[in-house]
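Section 3.1: Structural characterization of target chains.
Under the original work plan, the team committed to producing a structural model for every single-chain target entering the pipeline before any wet-lab resources were allocated. The record below documents one such target. The sequence was received from the expression subgroup and is listed exactly as submitted; it comprises 155 residues.
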Amino acid sequence: MRIDSRQSVLAPRHEAVAAQVRAAYLTALIRQGSDLRALQEEDPGRAMIIPLLRNERSLRNVDSPGQWFFGSIDGGRVPDRHIHIQPLPRETQSLLIASDGYPALAADLESTERFLMGLLEVDPLLIGDHPQTKGLRAGNESFDDRSMIHVSFID
């Protein structure tokens, strides 16, 4: 989410940890001489975290305290503890809400897409400044599906 120039990320903690573990593992393999293209095709880091990602449904929309539980709009009830209410300052001019297919948000869709394409060019494995649970696969335009809502407020 981005309110004017202030960005915040609301991501499930287990996904952030999984992305960091994947990044650390792939970085270690690269330091040991693994071929980048081979890592991009096979992604052993992704294979390592898949058991957690496949079982994340047991963490979703749990109405109990715990650092690993998270809310998700999936057709079921989302417990109040997982609903994030973000007050907007009266002077807000722009609000962007995007899916996790965008590792960072710029001022608008065009700038955000340009940032994403530049990021994928320099870090196709997505193990650097914006670690993800998967990288860019050969033949794909991006590493994940993506969506964005951009609301402009006018007086």
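The mean pLDDT is 95.
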